[in-house]
Amino acid sequence: xxxxxxxxxxxxxxxxxxxxxxxxxxxxxxxxxxxxxxxxxxxxxxxxxxxxxxxxxxxxxxxxxxxxxxxxxxxxxxxxxxxxxxxxxxxxxxxxxxxxxxxxxxxxxxxxxxxxxxxxxxxxxxxxxxxxxxxxxxxxxxxxxxxxxxxxxxxxxxxxxxxxxxxxxxxxxxxxxxxxxxxxxxxxxxxxxxxxxxxxxxxxxxxxxxxxxxxxxxxxxxxxxxxxxxxxxxxxxxxxxxxxxxxxxxxxxxxxxx
Length: 258
Ligand code: SF4
Fold this sequence. Notes:
This protein has 258 residues and is an alpha/beta fold. The protein is 44% helix and 11% strand. It contains 12 helices and 8 strands. The longest helix has 19 residues, at 239-257.
């Protein structure tokens, strides 16, 4: 995979410790030098490790089908959004401020799937805002895209009180909305961020550490798992692994596109 200087700048901004080829590192140094006045260029230094890419190998697993069949599967975008806004299928509708439907391009090639709205998302009615949202945006930039290029949605559309884990019955009630969003967007790749999103989408209780590093399937669609940005904010040392996941996702996307 070609690593360009533009992308490396975002990784550097994320404090992600990235292994890159010597040529790519030199490219960053040149780009950094070109972006500062000549009198300062001699002092430019870029903190990247030079070595081999550490992307995990592609290891497709058995296809998984959506576990829930629902009348929601027949809805169009307008009907689906209206259904979520009016939804009372689980108790979370009583405590939410706003349903959080999803955001981004409805023709996206990448779809990011998270867990559930937090306080900021509940207040604004949009997924991944606040600090975790900013980090997700940076992760999206790191793969060469903008937030508006991808579609972002959660397993749950309403906030669980105190950010507790979703209850199984809440997921059962809500996940048909997500499955329909996936069908309507028809992305080439699903990027699951966090254990809850990955386990519920893939219908497994396998720990996230074992779900990472391989390409799963939802139907014929590839699924790559990485850490939730909120976790990465608490555990910045894991950002390097998250970058490996993004490299796997980019490699997978290249394979899909070719
Ligand atoms: S979480 Fe999902 S199923 Fe529950 S009320 Fe909200 S939209 Fe409906």
